[in-house]
Amino acid sequence: MKRIPSFDGVRGVAILLVLAGHSVANYEPLSPWIRRWLGSFANASFGVRLFFVLSGYLITSLLLDELKRTGKISLAAFYRRRAARILPAFYVFLAGAVILQIWYPLGITPSSFLTAATHTWNYGCWLWVTTSTSGAWTFGHLWTLALEQQFYLFWPAVLIGLGTRRAGWCALALIIWCPLARVGTYYLIPTQRGYIGIMLHTAIDSLMIGCLTALLLQNEQVRARLLRHGRVVALGAAIWALGVSPFVSEAVRGFPVVAGFTLDAIAAAWIIAWLHHRGPPAAEGLLGKGVLPWIGTVSYSLYLWQQIFLSPSGRLAEGDIIMPWVCAVGAAWLSYRLVEMPVLRWSAGRRTNEKRIAS
User: Fold this and answer.
1) Nearest to 276 by CA among 265, 264, 287
2) Sign of the CA dihedral with 113 first, then 114, 116, and 122 last
3) Which H/E stretch holds residue 16?
4) CB 311 within 8 A of CB 138
5) Rg of the chain in Å (alpha carbons)
6) DSSP letter (8 states) at residue 280
């Protein structure tokens, strides 16, 4: 599967929504009422759904391409690629946070570090994580990466074990299950209410929607319908995600948990599928060239490091919004150039040598 430049732009939009949401939430000069409503329309939650749906879509598309080319899916190769892409920059971030704590209190405790390092942050309520408020913020965003890593452990095996058709039904079942699980957890296990939107068994629906979209688009009739109706529905999906959904989420208590997360993910899936198969030149120009795709390229490192600089106890709370963003982007660029790029080049070279030896 060739690299799709417009998807880098989608990543750029997603991470900017996350940064905007964190900035508004922690910018103390704003009144709480303004922060609440402005933060809703900054919509960091939809940024997260975009990341999840795009990840599920791309991972499934790549696995299906491999299955079509070779007749099988290599789990070993899949996990080597994922490890090279994710782990080096992640553990450099963890080490950097620990070192920074020597001069600046980040509230990191041994239990919070261990939970973050083992990709189990989204189940901290089960693991008795103890951390200060600042420590919870420093590693709090890692629930998304934890959920992603847990998704990697089971989805390729589902495709291999069940085949594409049954895997599609499995994805649909999980999409239906998650809203029910969130509501059930809220009422039946009150101690886990703070984790409803982040645990694998209650929040996997966004990733599954991406996976199911990739599976459905293998069908020519589905692709034909996308081509016929894609522009109108994609426009409606964007209006829903950026305008209607934030308002309803604030106005109707419990809406995100019951249906909002899932509906936002469905909107994201339609936009992504439309961009992939029928994206107009204007959208491809906006998302595939300029600043947005560059931001999308460094979005993983930016996702990791922004949490430190956009914290509720940092410069944002003092009314300074410029320096935290400059520091976050600077740290992300250094991480990308010094960690991500060298590792990815090494990994690509290794795969090339392995293919030469095999041939």
Assistant:
1) 287
2) negative
3) helix 5-26
4) yes
5) 20
6) -
pLDDT in tens, 26-39: 887 777 767 676 76
* Helix pair angle (322-335, 299-309), 10° resolution: 140
- Give how far Cα 290 sits from Cα of 16, 19, 295, Å: 15, 19, 9
For the entire predicted model, the pTM comes to 0.91
Q: How far is residue 90's CA from residue 67's CA, in Å, rounded to a whole number? A: 29
List phi, psi (to 5°) of 275. -60, -40
- Return the structure tokens found at 193: 């209410």
The long-range contacts involving 183-192, CB below 8 angstroms and separated by at least 24 positions, are 183/257, 183/258, 186/254, 186/257, 191/125, 192/125
Sole residue written with tokens 């290599």:
74
Contact 301, 85 (CB under 8 A): no
DSSP alpha helix (H) spans, 27-128: 32-42, 44-70, 75-100, 110-117, 124-127
How many residues comprise the chain?
359
Place of tokens 């992300």: 332
Measured CA to CA, the distance from residue 277 to residue 259 in angstroms comes to 27
pLDDT tens across 91-136, in order? 999 999 999 998 888 888 888 899 999 999 998 766 655 555 556 8
